[in-house]
Amino acid sequence: MSAxxxxxxxxxxxxxxxxxxxxxxxxxxxxAARAVIAQALGLIELPEFIFxxxxxxxxxxxxxxRAELTALVVQPCSISLxxxxxxxxxxxxxRYQFDYDEPSADELEIPADDxxxxxxxxxxxxxxxxxxxxxxxxxxRARGADFTEAxxxxxGVEPLRSEDLKPFAGLAALADKLKKPEV
Length: 183
Fold this sequence. Notes:
The chain is of the alpha+beta class. The chain has three helices and seven strands.
């Protein structure tokens, strides 16, 4: 059994940015790396993927990542498994704080901005792949794909249908019958 290929990486040392100049980057994996990413994310194909942005100093020691994702993905339809092409575009911003305090269990509020502790190096490829994952349509649908009722049962047994599972439908009919005076 062979090990699955590892996801691509493109790291920059935080010290190159912290308190200094802005560093611009472009993560545009080649066809082989896109195939590895597609396999990891359950995609049929990943024809285009670019994560482009900057790592900029924020104050004396903090760093902010601002980037834009553009991608063309091919996913299986959630109904028919037919290929579905989607063009994605999204923006990402992450603040890295040098003196980051991890919130305690009592402080379970979600912060207004996305802050993380400043790592020794920032892997823009991993951030780009995460941004791609979050931007993917959850239930892609091919044109003309329609979810119809499927009924299955053992031979000789009548299949259970969705209207059979509505217990109050029979009660409504009974209530109507009780309201009408018998003649």
